[in-house]
Amino acid sequence: MSATSMEQLVSLCKRRGFVFQDSEIYGGLKGTYDFGPLGIELKKNIRDAWWRAMVYERDDIEGLECSHLSHHLVWKYSGHESTFSDPLCDCKKCKARIRADHIQDGKCPECGSTDLTEPRPFMLMMKTNIGPVDDGSSFAYLRPETAQGSYLNFKNVLVSTARKLPFGICQHGKSFRNEITPRNFLFRQREFEQAEMQYFVKPGTDIEWWNKWKEIRRQWWIDQGIPENKLRFKDHEQLAHYAKCATDIEYEFPWGFDEVEGIHDRQDFDLGSHTKNQSKFDIQANVMKNTDSTTELSYLDVFDGNKTYIPYVVETAMGLDRAFVVLMMDAFTQEQLPNGTERIVLKLKKHLAPVKVAVIPLKRNNPEIMKMAHDIKDSLLKTGIGRVMLEDSGNVGKAYRRHDEIGTPLCITVDFDSIEQSPATVTLRNRDTMEQERIEVAKLADYLKDFFR
Ligand code: GAP
Fold it and tell me: Which of 322, 325, 327 to mutate to test the pocket of ligand 1 (most atoms within 8 A of CB)?
């Protein structure tokens, strides 16, 4: 049985060092979290799996890393300054602030009062002051999406790599949104990580690419271990200001299907808006003469009569923290064992597992066993398989339970036979089957390299 509630996951994350509440000893800061020793490993492995699929296993995508801070005009011309808001109501009785679309039956979810203000737009972008003077005039926004940096650098990447359309730019990193009601652990935070890709195409081919990218991204989730029947596409009924058409990949959480990734056809909205002397975008009749930009974000198509045009963009936008929740929830398994006991096992795919191998000495007070366990661990550290650790914090049974819970695919146990027999052998225990086999110490490194390849 997989996780049936977010509470089960939160408890495991805290107990085993995946995720902690940020600023916990001061009561916590809502909507922010810290990743612990195992959490950063899992998050890195998810990010790497995404990067490998998007950049290394294709030949049409480049990487980029942009600043979290950007000129406030970026967010004026992207349309965020005038449209990136949620409708907010105040409860006049308990003073709670509530997203209007989260109000059911016209009642405050905190106190039940019906005395609520009319909805008003609440800006989701966070502002910070830049420089020594704090007079409100020198500010920057913390980016609410990574995408804009990829648009601003379109020309830089195009010229420096000599790319031809179609090609993409991948970027992952932190984004910030002043969410009115952060909720569901990492699902909706105020600071979170995105993994986004902007694919630049010839106008008119965008719908074809949008359909292709929907399928490529769905398959990625399946490749990470998510069953097909727990994923679905949901087309947007209400489109974001930049989108021509958009769909979400949704996962079936305990509370129902919910968004984990968006695939958007943004056409030339963003490149056009940031292009010198373009004024075609009239966001909410707040006509913007786009004369502040110094650059034309256009493309000279040598294969089509040297025409110059602004490319269209198909975007794939995944939340890494949401991916973290999905992959942990789906891997979380409660199993009834034949002897009547229960075990929790995190059946993560092995490329995602935070710890690849645990080396467990059977007796902590036996110097020979301890030495062999240390030697084996040291010999495996540089094999390139990932995190290998010595586990000597309890008896073997407890060690297995701990590593089942954190998803370690293999445990190596050093016992009396290991130090007494020649050639030396150890026990190798498989997380999922719990089967054990003996293997020669001399053959371990090659076996593990092969297993984790
Ligand atoms: N560049 C397009 C864009 O940002 P989005 O649908 O607003 O689109 C993309 O965000 C993904 O980022 C979402 O599918 C979700 O996985 C993640 N995301 C958005 N807001 C989030 C939040 N407050 N906390 C955690 N993840 C979030």
Answer: 322
pLDDT tens, position by position, 265-296:
999 999 999 998 765 555 544 555 556 888 89
Separation CA 77–CA 99 (nearest Å): 26
CATH of the domain at 19: 3.30.930.10
Q: 105: how many CB neighbours lie within 10 A of its CB?
A: 7
Enclosing domain of residue 242: 6-84+145-268+308-327
Q: If you measure from the C-alpha of residue 154 to the centroid of ligand 1, how many angstroms do you get, rounded to a whole number?
A: 22
Q: What is d(CA 297, CA 309) in angstroms, rounded to the nearest whole number?
A: 9
Query: Nearest residue CA, atom 24 of ligand 1?
Result: 188
| Residue pLDDT, tens place only, 313-332 | 999 999 999 999 999 999 99
d(CA 361, CA 393): 10
From the CA of 145, give the closest atom in ligand 1: 4
Is residue 132, in this structure, part of any structural domain at all? no
The CA distance from 436 to 13, in Å, is: 28
